Hints:
Layout: E1 23-26, E2 29-32, H1 36-45, E3 52-55, H2 70-75, E4 85-87, E5 93-94, E6 124-126, E7 129-131, H3 138-151, H4 180-191, E8 197-198, H5 208-214, H6 230-240, E9 244-246, E10 250-256, E11 263-270, E12 273-278, E13 281-284, H7 288-297, E14 322-329, E15 343-345, E16 361-364, H8 370-376, H9 382-390, E17 392-399, E18 408-412, E19 415-419, H10 425-441, E20 446-451, E21 487-489, H11 504-519, H12 524-532
Parallel strand pairs: 1-12, 2-3, 2-13, 3-9, 4-19, 13-21
Antiparallel strand pairs: 4-5, 6-7, 8-15, 10-11, 11-12, 14-17, 14-20, 15-16, 16-17, 18-19
Helix pairs in contact: 1-6, 1-11, 3-11, 8-9
Amino acid sequence: MPRATIDETPLPDAQMPSARPDEVIRTDIAIIGSGMGGGTMAYALKDSGAKVLIIERGHRLPAEPQNSDLDEVYLKGRYKNADTWYNGNTGAPFKPGVYYWVGGNTKVYGACLPRFRASDFEETQHQDGTSPAWPFSYSDLEPYYTRAEKLYRVRGRIGEDPTEPPHSEAYPHPPLNHEPAIQRLADSLRGQGLHPFRMPNGLDADTPEKRALCATSDGAPNEAGLKSDAEKVAINPALAAGVELTTGTKVTRLILGPDGRTIVAALAERDDRIIRVEADKFILAAGAVNSAALLLSSATPEHPRGLANSSGLVGRNYMVHNSTFFLGINPFKVNPTLWQKTLGLNDWYEAGPTNRYPLGNLQMLGKLRASMLKMARPWAPTWVLKAMSDRSVDIYLSTEDLPRRSNGISVVNGRIHVWWEPNNLEPHGELVRRISRAVRKAGYPVIFTERMGIETNSHQCGTAVAGHDPATSVLTPDCRTHDLDNLWVVDSSFFPSSAALNPALTIAANALRVADTILGAGNASVQGSLEKD
């Protein structure tokens, strides 16, 4: 029997809700989601004079000793609280790499905060096709990258990476230096004619004591509060300025007004109660999959394909990066590094003399430990995994995943199905081969690699693409929906392409840009608060 495609999945029932709400909340601006996009937007609006409400389906993640207990985090999944999703091609269930906490995925991210390269905003030819141009340029976003770096306290240095795009200002803080083992790796790569650099990040770990407190913070919370997550640097200051937050509240539907152009309310569930949130403006920032799912689930008889979906592209063009976990092992030397995520390499990020097409990015992982490997290899003896991780350098390789209409999400009986067939794999394989040669030359002869699958989707993007033409995009260049006058989407749904770098800083910079358009370019209160902080 032929395999189904995303186009053949049933659409949500186009029925209006009949239940009466148990509570009605009135606000000026409702922000759905509190991760990098929603949290940064709340911060940008905090001094606007508008009444702003953040709606978060999760709760506050507790700062507790278990934050750094690797068995609790990885083997017991203490903080994994996402719903089960389903592989659209096979029907197999999986736990996605998303987290529902105040601050969203930033509570567990590795705080790697690079800017996209200038070429990422332009049409780029790849081996498997074309990466489309964005509806605005790098230079348009550059001032907001600068603001986002200040807000998220990014550490880095201009000039170390030849692909670094122009900066109007220096990084607000100096880069984190490599620990000795990683410095030796950097020296070897440089001796091979490559250009390793200190990766920009938002981790306050510039002393050995702080590094010890951050040693497990890539993929886990940091109870010491040394990570620039959205809760700490954006949401808490926003709440102090009068923004409101409701937690444990899952938005299930957006309600369209009689004019067909305006969202009048969001329906949410909280403790078996139905909450109706009414607002003048709605900002959707629930993550690329969940934002698209909400639009699809808000279908009406007049809009049976979902809201904001006249283009038919809501949920389509889902991208996540082609990514590989890479271990280089020296069986005879222990790697005592506490925080390893300081080194990056972009020598083959763009097409050049030695690579006809872009290959991608190298960045270090925080530091793999036995419990992390045990999650992937439960059958392996723990002592073997510990011996490996004690002697390894750990790398994350990513290559651009190109947009395809056939890759996307659908909602069937309330369940999210993800349809994803990776593309552009040959350049990714070449990146792995080149890094393997370089790491072996650096003194790590034993190489283990594993390409990540559908469940590794923390870099998800593209499900409500921004563009100029309503027929070929969901959002305007300013991230307002073409179809609706008071709905903006500011998570990574808007990305026309995935680039090959961590998306977090670009999400934050864009949220600041969109905030200016919502309130009016040059809004004095917003501008002043950003510059002050």
